[in-house]
Structures are given as structure tokens and as C-alpha cells.
Amino acid sequence: MRAAFRTAIPALLSSAAAFRPCRRILRLSPLLLLRSSPLSSSMANHPTPPSSASPSSSSTAAAGATVGLSSSSSSSMEKQFEDFRVQLEESGSVRERIRRVVMEMEGAIRLMHSSLLLVHQSLPAPEVLEKARVQIGVLNDLFGRLAEILRECPGQYYRYHGDWKSETQTVVSLLAFLHWLETGSLLTHEEAEKKLGLNASEFGLDIEDYLIGLCFMSNEMPRYVVNQVTAGDYDCPRKVLKFLTDLHAAFRMLNLRNDFLRKKFDGMKYDLRRVEEVYYDVKIRGLASGETTKDQTTQA
Amino acid sequence: MLYSSCRHLLSSFPMAASKPHRLHQIVGASLLSSSKKPRTMATDSTMKQEFTKYADYLNELNDKRERVVKASRDVTINSKKVIFQVHRISKDNKEEVLAKAENDLAAVTDQYISRLVKELQGTDFWKLRRAYTFAVQEYVEAATLCRFCKTGTLLNLAEINASLLPLSDQSVEPLQINVLDYLLGLADLTGELMRLAIGRISDGEVEYAEKICQFVRDIYRELTLVVPRMDDNSEMKKKMETMLQSVVKIENACFSVHVRGSEYNPLLGSSDPDYSIFGIIMQFL
């Protein structure tokens, strides 16, 4: 301990001695001091004081030996970065092409969505659904083009996934809603892939995207129920409630992470509650009475 | 390859799920003897069936991600240790310190990177990239720092990737560090080199610091051309700003030694010139 002090004190003394002339010079040049002061706060690591003061001639010789190497290395460095530039340019052009397809996809989605919105205005008519169904073919082609682009860079599906992720989720929600209107059942992941002409082995439908799409579909349900009841279909809330309850129960089987899907799933319960309220309103006023008595007789 | 794990589940699934399915049908049949809506019944049970598949897929993916994160943490910690080892360098112990650093780095590759490779096997590398990108960046930083101190050159991505090839079995696609992670690692390297340069100057090795300065400038210059083309370059843009600061710090330190160091080396005499330089550098920190 004491020995450590004894060695430390001369070092402190001599570094203090070094500071003195240093300050003097800085006082002479306040401009330099100003220039260097902003740096001091951001500097993270302070160098440790040198333990021994040996003449610097040996180190400069060593450094000089390696300095020669760096000139030859800078050309190989240039070459590597040139390669990177080419590679990144290629992936950039892939992304460009993907984005162009996704833009077209957005157009098809808008058309499909707007034609599906008609279901809110009246009781479902087959020609309303037919108009929406046309867009599935368009989307099929567009996904085919995406798959074709991705075929050029195998194994990089998830590198570019972010570019079509949200569009795919919307597509799933529209498809699932349409499918439910047609059949009253849930569109499965496999069926969704089939509808979009996707092949799981090369360009599949990400399961998380599919599930998020289902959550979006659930968001659409309360409005649908309200409008159907207004249009006179009093049995609709019961059907939707059953479907949403099942869907919610199924979602609870999943172990979710704290991510976007989790957030969307958490929102689903509000859709469920809203539909329950509508069902309650209809039922308590005896509007759905015919249906319930029929139910009771069949069950008895 | 994309859904290899998922399809595997699909094939193994019907046997596992047939039981609850049948059970449900029996229960359903007893409750609603003449089921009014057989379709909704079927929907419910197929829905459960389908969701079992999704649950399995998500469980497997999350477990894998968790394991990758754990392996990555080990890579990060131990790569950091290598970097700290390199910073223990001083004029007299260069070979010794670097030999130990290289040893440690080899241990990181053999033990921890290989585990990361094992955990990632069979998955799309891009899917879980967020889980391991920081570990890989840190590893690139450690490896390139070691190489620079040894030879004064930049360790190429191709060389790193070649060294990773023997880590995994022939049957699976080997982990290859992608350009983006390599470049992000290089950006961090310049920060470490700045520290190294300041340390060297305070140790009296001005020429070594100047060599570092030149090297960092080269990297910065090359990166300015590459960064705008990177996939998601917001992170990299931030790093470029920090990098420029590092370059400027080294340049200023070199400058001050050049200009002022020459003024007072003679003042203090040749007894201990290093402390005088150290004093100047301290003004910058």
C-alpha cells in the first residue's frame, strides 16, 4: 500500500509539472481552447497515465514498420468497399422493384376495401361480394410478382419482409372478412395462402402477419353488426358474437410476446364487448325473440 | 426453407390434434342433439385445431429467439472483454497483450459464436436478425480491432465469414455475417480506435496514433459512399456522426502534439517527454 503511494506520488508531481506550461500556452491562444472545449464533454474514455517513461525512439520505429503496410491495405480496403457498394446497390434495386409491386397492391387493396364497405349499407347481396372477389385475382398476380423477385435472392424473404408486411396484413383481414361473409367460418392460414396463390416453400404467408390480419378483421365486426341490425337482420349479432367469442378463445391459446400482435389481440376484447352490447340491446327488446324460441325448441 | 419448421408441424399435427377434436364433437353432440348449425360447430373445432398449429409455430419461434438472444449476450460480453484486453496495450507489452487478445477472440469464436450458429440453424437468418445483430457487430468490432493492432490492416468480411464456415455442420446453411452488420461493426470500431489513439499519444507513440488517424479517415471516407445505399440506414447515420467526431478527436489530438508538443519538449528536457505530451492530451479530454 505504502509502496504504491510512493510510486504514485512522483508520477502525480511530474504530470502536474507538465500541466503548468501547458496552461500557459493555452492562455496565449484562447481560440484553440474554445475549439477544444466542446470535445471534452463528449470524450468517453480517459487514457491511463503512462506507467513508465521510456524514450520514444523504439516505439516510433515499431510504428514506422507497420505504417508501410497500411498503404497496401488501403487498396484492398477500397476493393472491399467497392464490392459492398455493388452488393448494396443490387439489394436497393430489389427493394425498389418490391416497392413498386407493393404500390400496385395498395391500389387493389383500396378497391377491395371500398367494395367490401358496401356491406355496411344494406343486407349482404351477392353482387357486392362479387366485386370484392375480383380483386383477389389481382392480388394473386401481385403476390406472384413478389415471389418472382424474391426468387432471385433466396433466403432473404425476411430481409425485405417489412416492405409488404402491413399490406399483407390488410389483405388477410379483407380476405378473412369476405370469407366469413361467404361461409360463416374462419379463413385458415392454409386457405389464405391458397387464395393468394402463395407457396409456403418459397414465398409463404407469415403466420404472424396472418394473425394480425385476423385482428384487423375483428375490428371491422362491431360496425358490421350495428349496421346489420339497423338494416333489420336481428340474428346477426348472435352469429357474430359466437364467431368472435370462438376467435378470441382461440387467440388465447397463443403465447404472445410483447409485440404488435399482442397489442392487436388486446384490442380484440373491445370489439367483443361492443358486439355483446349490441346483442344485449337486440335481445332485451325481444327483437331476436323468434330466433331464441326456435333455439330453445331445438335444444329441448 | 421458409416454413420448414411450420410444415414439419403440419405433418406431425393431425395425430396430436385428433383427440381433442373428437372429444369436442362428442361433447357438442350431447349438448345439441340435433345441432341446428353444424357449420359453426365445425368452425369452432377447426379453429381450435388451426390455432394449435399457430401456437406451436409461435412457441417454437419464441423459444428459438430466446436462445439466440442468450447466445448473443455471451458473444457481446466476451467480445467486449477482447476489446478491453486490446486497450491494455502499451509501448512495451504489445506482443504479449495482442497475443492474449487474439487467444480470447479465438475462444469467443469457438465457444460463443459457434453456439449462436447452432441456435440459428435452419432458420432464416434475416428473421431473427434483430436478436443477434448487436452481438455480431460487437464481434466484428473485436475481430477488426485485433487485426488492425497486429498488422495495421482492415479485416475483410470475406475473411471473417471464411473463419465461421467450419463452425457449423455441412448439412445446414452456415451463418454468414451480412454486409450491414459488418458495416455497423466497423462504425463502432472507429470509436475504439479513437480511444486507442488517445492512449497511444499519451504513451508517446505519436506515429502510431497518426497511423490510426489515417486508417479511421479511410474507413470514414469509404463509408460515406456506402451508407446511403444501406437497407435501413437511420442507425448507421447516427453512427456516422459519432464516427466523424471520433475522427476529429484523433485529428485534434495529433494536431496538438504536432504544434504544441514541439514547443515544449525542449522546455522540459529529455528526461520525461511523455508526461508533457500527456498533459497536452489531457486538455482535450
UniProtKB/TrEMBL annotation, chain A:
One of its GO terms (biological process) is RNA metabolic process. Transmembrane segments: none annotated. Residues 39-74 are annotated as: Disordered. GO terms for molecular function: RNA binding; sequence-specific DNA binding; single-stranded DNA binding. This is Translin. Belongs to the translin family. Pfam families: Translin (PF01997). Keywords: Cytoplasm, DNA-binding, Nucleus, RNA-binding. The keyword DNA-binding applies. It is found in: Cytoplasm; Nucleus. GO terms for cellular component: cytoplasm; nucleus. The keyword Transmembrane does not apply. Residues 53-74 have a biased composition (Low complexity).
From TrEMBL, chain B:
One of its GO terms (molecular function) is sequence-specific DNA binding. Residues 54-111 form a coiled coil. GO terms for cellular component: cytoplasm; nucleus. It is found in: Cytoplasm; Nucleus. Keywords: Coiled coil, Cytoplasm, Nucleus. It comes from the Eukaryota. It holds the Pfam family Translin. InterPro entries: Translin_C (IPR016069), Translin_fam (IPR002848), Translin_N (IPR016068), Translin_sf (IPR036081). Belongs to the translin family. PANTHER family: TRANSLIN AND TRANSLIN ASSOCIATED PROTEIN X. This is Translin-associated protein X isoform X1. It comes from Phoenix dactylifera.
